[in-house]
Amino acid sequence: MSSKPEQKETHQANGAVLPIMPMDCLTSPDRGQLVEPSDFLEPDGDGVEVVVLESRANAKGVREEDALLENGSQSNESDDTSTDRGPEPASPLKETSFSIGLQVLFPFLLAGFGTVAAGMVLDIVQHWDVFKYVTEVFILVPALLGLKGNLEMTLASRLSTAANIGQMDTPKELWRMITGNMALIQVQATVVGFLASIAAVIFGWIPDGHFSIDHAVLLCASSVATAFIASLVLGMIMIGVIIGSRKMGINPDNVATPIAASLGDLITLALLSGISWGLYKELESKAYVNPLVCAFFIALLPIWIIIAKKNAATREVLYSGWEPVIIAMAISSVGGLILDRTVSDPNFAGMAVFTPVINGVGGNLVAVQASRISTYLHMSGMPGESSETAPRKCPSPCSTFFSPDVNSRSARVLFLLVVPGHLVFLYTISSMQGGHTTLTLVFIVFYMTAALLQVLILLYIADWMVHWMWGRDLDPDNFSIPYLTALGDLIGTGLLALSFHVLWLIGDRDTDVGD
């Protein structure tokens, strides 16, 4: 009589799981074999009645997995996620040409008006004493604007990729990414800003053979201070844009990089003009101010280095990410040398207002494309992994612009934005009488030809460079954008100078600067 109560107590002690058991509970997790019936015997040898039913939870998991697979989910382990793992990264959105254009249009126009404002500022400050007597400041303009683009757009691309693959979904991950990346760009801005001033001194000394130590220290202080402050302000804006766009369901790749440049050119150029003008005024009476400014920002470097080294996501970039930004700075400085040689010529004086516009628009568009391709590749694996999506050979122009894949579709959309965008920007400059330049049909044709050719070359190079770097085990988010934006500065400035020279040769005097 005591056997039945004892059996009931045993069932309760085991959590009442023995009477009804799922099929997978009859298999050993170690051997994958059926559990022997003896395992279910009582100590006295009496058997326990076992009813085998299919687990509803397991069936539900299978149905959910099938649904995810049908919807093209990237994960094939959706019902086997451990509790300590973070949220699964969101699958890439299927974007049409219309959706891409709609998301890119507003940030593109905003960034374009930012470059227009920067061009208007440059058109005004080129007549200041510091720009007249320390002409090497013109060489700093493309270098620092390009540095801003390199650092902020690389930051935007890096954070956009992290957001798209689920590395910023928890507050802890978000804070780690913010602190590490902000410290990283401060290190890069300070070092590259210092090197940009050295390049400006060298490029200014080579043609004329004239060197002034006071001007060299002035360039150093102005460059380092501008790079540091601009990167700090723009970095915080960039982080807010990426977090906000992610919460609104917008692909950060489409909006982050243009917005990074919307106020970037204006803020950087305004800071450079104001700081250099203020330091130039203090040069005669308080010569010690310029060296102190340089020493202050350089002394902060160890702090930012320690913070960046503590973050695994930025530690690698801190050691290996110098080559692209330094080479890009040198390339942009060559464009600055072209600008320095042309703005002093009355036949090219109108170039000052258009240079930030054509360079900024080209850099913004190619940065969007590079960020999108990089995110697309990150969805398929890690850099260096062999994949059909990462060809190492040089692609054909047809595959870059006319293939059916999403990256080719976005390249077509970005290229089609060039003409209407520049028409709006040219009209804005003309209505504000920027550079006292009259827009003639001949000038618009030459300008649009230069702008289209610049973006066409940049988009093709981006398609090749991002895939090539991916195949070489290099993260395109950190390495491709600095080269592409620097090439945009050089190509844009060169083509614009060539257009002005041809217009001068054919006698289109309406494009000259008036009194």
TrEMBL record:
UniProt region (Disordered), positions on chain: 1-46, 60-94
GO molecular function: inorganic cation transmembrane transporter activity; monoatomic cation transmembrane transporter activity
Membrane topology term: Multi-pass membrane protein
Signal peptide: none
Biased composition (Basic and acidic residues): 1-11
InterPro entries membership: SLC41_membr_dom (IPR006667), SLC41_membr_dom_sf (IPR036739), SLC41A1-3 (IPR045349)
Membrane-spanning intervals of the chain: 104-124, 182-204, 216-243, 255-275, 287-307, 319-339, 411-429, 441-461, 481-506
Gene assigned in the entry: Slc41a1
Protein name, per record: Solute carrier family 41 member
Record's GO cellular component terms: plasma membrane
GO terms of biological process kind: metal ion transport
Keyword annotations of the record: Ion transport, Magnesium, Membrane, Transmembrane, Transmembrane helix, Transport
